[in-house]
Design brief:
This protein is mostly helical. It is built from 23 helices and 4 strands. It has a two-stranded antiparallel sheet. A two-stranded antiparallel sheet has the order 3-4. The longest helix is centred in the last third of the chain and has 42 residues.
């Protein structure tokens, strides 16, 4: 993880009391696990050199003006731009078609292979990307680069829709149908099978193994430990702070959370999809409706906020590094939020019931639209119409999460309560989705054996408890690096397989035009 993203995570932990101060539950002291000073410190210290080396490689940055451009972000954005043009702006011309598919008006054959509906596959994938970052990443971007960073965040989200289209189409096209009726898909399978079709079997196998290892390690850290920790911190904050019975019992909360996670993930993708199909719309509606109340209460500031988002995207005020810094900041936050090009969500989309892979490619485009264009933009508007002040960019008065929380509290003091609930729901939904991603990596490496799946689920639930009781920063840094390292193999594979997708897309459009409306 970069110093900036590492600082962001530590800031989120340090500034969690802002919720509590606004709730009147406490003032001052940081609330979090009572960290043991023995084993976790020894593990953290021993692992730190490995984590630092991996982070330095994956998040290597070059100076662009006064800004630092991480090459992994450039790799993701370059891919998104290429696929947008290569598929002739499929993110625009396929948008309405995507809505028709996910609404059930198209592709309704019940005999199609797969395990979940288009909508369930979408909500599972959205639950893996919509998370704490939608609240914190945007706030950090604005606190550093001003409202103009929002404009480039939206642009990056729009471009990322094309990457999602390609990787999720491939996820369905090259998925594996298992003997028990389940399906397995994602980058591991399309890198292996797809590149074998392109007569690159050795490269495909090596890239698939590399990806599977990365996603298993990554899901246990950023997709499990960090999410569990954030759920724990927010739960303590809203249940009494220092006086909460869980304030020094992280293991107890972790055990309860692990049970809740286990109840869902042991049922596989069908169980996960049923939960996310209900949870994602609820938590999105809760957050968006609450945010719209804040924006509505400050309706007079909306024109100025929109004007600042557009104008300061090109002529930033108060942001260090000027135009390029704001552009890079917005693109980086979008890449970290919607994960377009990383390939993880194609694992969830691969489980869809369909005989036509391209239909889920269209549906997948809605994911970065919801995650980045809608939710992140709403967060930016909440901040910009309420507590944003250019002076905050230079005096360090507020950090990322404090901006968002203060924005909600500026309208009704108890609004940080639903915000805290949303954060806990975001963390929980992310955990159950990422457990499935890691499980599919395990299935690729070790086969679809019941013993292997049970072992992985047990390890994942154990890491839920660890996340609530220890602060293994180096392990989390390493897992973050592993997640973004997946993009190195995935985007390269997408480039090599894009001609196959384009061939299928042209044939698909001909069939659509030939069929009756």
């Amino acid at each position: 993880m970069t110093n900036e993203s590492k600082s962001q995570r530590h800031t989120l932990l340090r500034t969690s009391p802002c919720f509590v101060r606004m709730l009147g539950a406490m003032s001052g002291a940081w609330i979090g696990p009572a960290w043991p000073s023995g084993l976790d410190e020894a593990i953290d210290g021993a692992f730190r050199p490995v984590a630092r080396a991996m982070s330095d490689i994956v998040f290597f940055a070059v100076p662009v003006g006064d800004a630092q451009l991480q090459l992994i972000v450039l790799w993701l954005i370059a891919g998104a731009v290429f696929f947008t043009f290569y598929f002739r702006f499929i993110n625009i011309r396929g948008f309405v078609h995507a809505i028709r598919i996910v609404s059930g008006k198209l592709d309704k054959d019940p005999k199609s292979p797969g395990e979940v509906s288009h909508f369930q596959a979408l909500t599972t994938a959205v639950s893996g990307t919509v998370g704490v970052g939608n609240i914190v990443h945007v706030a950090v971007a604005i606190s550093i680069g001003g409202p103009g960073a929002t404009f480039w965040l939206i642009v990056a989200g729009f471009l990322g829709m094309a990457s999602k289209f390609v990787e999720c189409t491939l996820g369905v096209k090259y998925r594996q149908e298992n003997a028990d009726g389940s399906v397995s898909g994602g980058p591991m399978f399309y890198l292996d099978r797809g590149l074998r079709e392109r007569r690159l079997p050795r490269l495909g196998k090596a890239m698939a193994w590399y990806y599977a290892i990365c996603i298993i390690v990554g899901c246990l850290g950023a997709g499990c430990m960090f999410q569990a920790n954030q759920a724990y911190v927010q739960f303590v904050n809203v249940t009494g702070g220092d006086h909460s019975i869980f304030a020094d019992r992280g293991w107890l909360f972790g055990l309860a959370l692990a049970v809740l996670v286990a109840l869902v993930i042991v049922g596989g993708i069908r169980s996960i999809a049923k939960v996310t199909a209900r949870l994602v719309p609820f938590m999105a509606l809760l957050y968006v409706s609450t945010a719209l109340v804040v924006i509505g209460a400050n309706y007079a500031e909306i024109p100025g906020a929109l004007g600042a988002i557009v104008s300061q995207a090109f002529t930033p005020e108060g942001a260090t590094g000027g135009f390029f810094a704001v552009l890079i900041l917005g693109f980086r936050r979008a890449a970290f939020s919607n994960e377009a090009g990383i390939g993880s969500s194609s694992i969830a989309h691969a489980a869809v019931k369909t005989g036509e892979p391209l239909t889920q490619g269209f549906v997948a485009m809605l994911e970065p639209f919801i995650d980045t264009v809608v939710i992140c933009t709403i967060t930016a508007l909440v901040i910009t119409v309420t507590v944003y002040d250019p002076a905050l960019l230079t005096d360090g008065t507020m950090s990322g999460v404090e901006l968002t929380s203060s924005a909600f509290a500026s309208v009704i003091p108890w609004f940080p309560i639903p915000l805290a609930v949303v954060i806990m729901l975001f963390a929980y939904s992310t955990m159950i989705s990422w457990s499935y991603y890691g499980l599919e990596g395990c299935i690729y490496l070790f086969g679809n054996r019941r013993s292997a799946k049970l072992a992985f689920n047990a390890v994942f639930c154990a890491f839920v408890i660890i996340g609530c009781t220890t602060q293994l920063d180096a392990v989390l840094d390493f897992s973050d690096a592993m997640i973004f390292a997946m993009a190195l193999a995935n985007v390269l594979g997408l480039y090599l397989l894009a001609p196959l997708v384009k061939r299928d897309l042209d044939a698909y459009w001909r069939r659509v035009k030939a069929s009756p409306p």
